[in-house]
């Protein structure tokens, strides 16, 4: 209610229980003035956008897109401004008519109350005469409208409210017709509106998902299968964050932070894939190099092996023959060891090494196997092993970076969940670092993080 609003009668007896013509004409007029102001501001902004779209001095690849977007936005702003201008005329007319209906209704109420006073006076007079003993005074016949002395006023009020409803529907229809323009809400607008209305609850739910993902991420260091759960939570979180961005309740920087948090698992999986692929190719190269080395080594001592073999056939069973056999085997074993051994399966590792490799014992053993084959066959397997191991280290570093940022954010930052419960139920908030929180909520002022 505005300061100039007229106070409506509260007691509508004997005609109605409440005001039959409610409303505040002055409040409608105040809204009309606001709409006129908004329309003027929109027209001003539209002129500014038109200036941009017609600007010839702008240079660069962005100019064409900027002009197109400015022209489209300018058209929509003018359409919205026109909508405001068209609608406020109907609202002004309706506020005047509503005020007239209320004035007429007040007059009917006043006449009804005057009639009520007359009837109360007559009733008091008759009671006085009855007390004086005048038994012969004729009584009212009860015909006509005496059984409902306010029927005339009720009918007048009913006619008035019917006319009011008719005119209200008329103006409502006119307003609906005026807003049938190019600026219409789509199903996507409805979705964004719902997300905006429930933004705090969605953020609280996402906070819960974040904690579940963090805990599951640490547990997945020992139980590899849980990383799929963390990936699912990360994808859901990013999807919800994008909805909040669309509704204006989050920024693209928030999305970046969510993506970085998801790198814990994604980076680990990427590192494992790179390592497995590199290990396979490295084992193949090492095996080929060993086979070639054995062939060369045996070819070099083939004459000696052949001679000792023939000599063994001529000797009887005994120590001499056994000595020649042992010498031949030692020669083959020496060649095999000097050529190098191929590690074909993950090697044993320490608990500390397992932890460094995100708790994956098999991945840690595979990394050790890769290094062993690289050391044994540097020329044949070195290049493939170096490439695979460097890619693996990058993925591992990304994963640890994601984990570190996620833990830091949860330790130092505010909790959307406890903030929501604090607002709704008065519970306490999670302790947080004020400096970090101020930076987090002000970081979008950085031009490099503003989405265009």
Features:
452 residues, mainly alpha, 14 helices, 0% strand
Structural description of this entry:
This protein is mainly alpha-helical. About 75% of the residues lie in helices and about 0% in strands. The chain is built from 14 helices and no strands. The chain has helices spanning about 25-55, 60-130, 150-180, 185-195, 200-220, 225-245, 250-300, 300-315, 320-340, 350-355, 360-375, 380-410, 415-425, 435-440. α5 runs antiparallel to α6 and α8 runs antiparallel to α9 (about 320-340). The longest helix is centred in the first third of the chain and has 70 residues, at about 60-130. The radius of gyration is 45 Å and the shape is elongated. Residues about 140-145 and about 445-450 have low confidence and may be disordered.
Largest sheet: none
Low-confidence stretches: 141-145, 444-452
**Outline type:** elongated
Give the SSE order as H and E letters: HHHHHHHHHHHHHH
| Helical run tally | 14
Rg over CA atoms, rounded to whole Å, is 45 Å
How far apart lie the N and C ends? 41 Å
Mean pLDDT: 78
How do the helices and strands line up, and which of them pair or pack?
Blueprint: H1 25-53, H2 62-131, H3 151-178, H4 187-197, H5 199-219, H6 227-247, H7 252-300, H8 302-314, H9 319-339, H10 351-356, H11 361-376, H12 378-412, H13 416-425, H14 434-442
């Amino acid at each position: 209610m505005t300061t100039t609003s007229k106070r409506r009668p509260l007691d509508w007896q004997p005609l109605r229980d409440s005001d039959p013509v409610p409303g505040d004409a002055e409040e409608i007029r105040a809204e009309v003035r606001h709409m006129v102001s908004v329309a003027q501001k929109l027209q001003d902004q539209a002129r500014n956008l038109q200036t941009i779209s017609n600007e010839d001095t702008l240079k660069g690849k962005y100019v064409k897109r900027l002009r197109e977007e400015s022209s489209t936005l300018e058209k929509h702003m003018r359409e919205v401004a026109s909508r405001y201008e068209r609608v406020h005329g109907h609202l002004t007319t309706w506020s005047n008519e509503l005020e007239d209906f209320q004035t007429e209704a007040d007059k009917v109420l006043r006449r009804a109350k005057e009639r009520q006073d007359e009837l109360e006076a007559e009733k008091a007079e008759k009671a006085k005469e009855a007390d004086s003993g005048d038994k012969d005074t004729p009584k009212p016949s009860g015909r006509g409208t005496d059984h409902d002395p306010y029927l005339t006023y009720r009918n007048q009020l009913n006619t008035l409210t019917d006319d009011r409803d008719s005119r209200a529907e008329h103006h409502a229809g006119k307003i609906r017709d005026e807003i049938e323009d190019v600026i219409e809400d789509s199903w996507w607008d409805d979705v964004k509106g719902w997300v905006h209305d429930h933004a705090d609850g969605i953020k609280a739910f996402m906070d819960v998902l974040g904690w579940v993902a963090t805990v599951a991420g640490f547990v997945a260091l020992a139980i590899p299968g849980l990383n799929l759960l963390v990936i699912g939570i990360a994808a859901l979180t990013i999807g919800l964050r994008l909805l909040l961005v669309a509704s204006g309740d989050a920024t693209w920087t928030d999305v970046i932070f969510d993506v970085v948090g998801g790198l814990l698992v994604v980076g680990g999986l990427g590192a494992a894939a790179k390592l497995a692929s590199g290990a396979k190719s490295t084992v193949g190269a090492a095996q080929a190099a060993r086979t070639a080395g054995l062939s060369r080594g045996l070819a070099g001592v083939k004459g000696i092996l052949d001679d000792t073999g023939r000599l063994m056939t001529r000797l009887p069973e005994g120590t001499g023959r056994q000595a020649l056999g042992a010498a031949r085997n030692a020669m083959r074993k020496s060649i095999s060891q000097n050529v190098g051994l191929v590690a074909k399966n993950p090697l044993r590792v320490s608990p500390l090494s397992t932890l460094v490799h995100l708790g994956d014992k098999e991945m840690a053993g595979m990394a050790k196997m890769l290094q062993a084959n690289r050391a044994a066959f540097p020329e044949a397997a070195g290049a493939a092993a170096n490439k695979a191991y460097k890619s693996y280290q990058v993925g591992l570093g990304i994963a640890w970076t994601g984990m570190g940022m996620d833990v830091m954010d949860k330790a130092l930052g505010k909790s959307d969940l406890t903030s929501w419960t604090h607002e709704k139920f008065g519970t306490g908030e999670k302790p947080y670092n004020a400096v970090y929180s101020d930076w987090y909520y002000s970081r979008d002022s950085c031009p490099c993080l503003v989405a265009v």
